[in-house]
């Protein structure tokens, strides 16, 4: 194709890309771009980045429109939000059966999003499977095949946890983590809240924050003692609230009360449809799915440690010096066991026996 033709095609493609906010970039034009040399490759990379942003916009549109959708359309939207991999890999009819709606409902959902067809929606999510976490999971599967451990529960669980943790580096999630850390770093007082299995994550984060010198408290909704604490919190405080389905009413009530006081809210949860996500100034969504019987807290613990590291960086805390002082303090109070002496008295009989055996004295 002549260079002039390439230029005209690329100009048209750039114009189309700049205006296509709610619909999938035309497949035909994308195919032509791929044959247009270096400039086409550059635009192709821009398209791929735009696709990631478009997927995020679609998710935001679905979450924002849930309340006003008819019940069947809402069910389909929830399926898309909660099963992005299935949207990419399964046929429309299979997805409809799994979501328990008709396939025509899936078509109506695509139209509601402004897409030409449901295949366009599938294509957007299919490109998401090229993300690093999916590549990493594929590597784990091939490794199991090579090692002959396809039925290994250990390998399956380890690979799944690795993929979930790697997914936290995705651009959209990373931006939310940075924004959440900003809120936590700026707060003069931190409150942490997480019922049931999330409580261990809350305790871990609170400990890390205390090591950084932050004024931090773990709230207990069971005793009701949080009422007075939240009343005095105000706009200079921040709350880290962690909650997973089924969501605890007490946790959501506490967060609502804190919002009325102007307190900043950071939420770690498992869905954009979580009530905590809707209430939070910054929400981090992660997966708790596991190949074991129990929901996984590994991604949540990873988020807690990432937030702690970001807060330390933003506050300019010398973590090495902080940990050194903490260890010295613990040593002064005999927190750690004393080391055994390198030499201890040995009786004559024992000394003679050691000499005969030519063994060193411990």
Uncertain segments of ≥5 residues (pLDDT<50)? 17-30, 37-51, 131-149
Question: What oligomeric state do these chains adopt?
Answer: single chain
Order of the strands making up the biggest sheet? 2-1-3-4-5
CATH architecture of the largest domain: 3-Layer(aba) Sandwich
By secondary-structure content and strand pairing, the structural class works out as alpha/beta
State mean pLDDT (0 to 100 scale): 73
Q: How does the overall form come out from the CA principal axes?
A: globular
Instruction: Estimate what percentage of residues fall within beta strands.
Output: 5-15%
**What is the CATH superfamily of the largest domain?**
Glucose-6-phosphate isomerase like protein, domain 1
The CATH topology of the largest domain is Rossmann fold
First-residue to last-residue Cα separation: 84 Å
Number of domains: 3
Number of helices: 18
Radius of gyration: 27 Å
Q: Profile the largest sheet.
A: 5 strands, parallel
CATH class of the largest domain reads Alpha Beta
Give the topology string: H per helix, E per strand. HHHHHHHHHHHEHEHEHEHEHHH
According to DSSP, the number of beta strands is: 5
Q: What share of residues is helical?
A: 55-70%
